[in-house]
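--- STAGE predict ---
source: upstream dedup step, 1 unique chain passed
mode: sequence only
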Amino acid sequence: MNYAEIKKADIANGVGVRVSLFVSGCTHHCRGCFNQETWDFAYGTEFTGETEEMLLQLLQPSYIAGLTVLGGEPFEPSNQRGLLPLLKKVKERYPQKNIWCYTGYLLEEELLKTSRARCEVTDEMLSMIDVLVDGEFVEEKKNISLQFRGSENQRVIDLKKSLESGEVTCLDFAAGK
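--- STAGE serialize ---
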């Protein structure tokens, strides 16, 4: 797996100050994508054990709320296999911090059912994620006033609650949740 960028103090991709990992590789190719260079699986830098350890160190300060994984597409099967060991270590080392993940796939239609995104580690990866922002970026539905997403079709999902209940539960920022 390759990655395009690591942001050490990101406030745009989740609640609080976060460490953000932008993985490389995406087959969605959304029109108007802000990060087209990450469509190429070979773009950027190889994700190594040293990269993983650096991310774990970056997450250590108490002011860091958690990790955000985006891209590219974290739920491309090859990226899932590369990310799962990192997500496990984050949860083990920092159980008080949360993990956000952005995906163009839809939770109940593509990640929980048979699709090109599902592989042998999908369910375990989903179990590590606290908040999932799902849905492809749709340029015609672009809205810069939305929190933590780029287009109105995208959802900010409380993944833990959704998996427990079997129904998609979205976070409501207007209500302060």
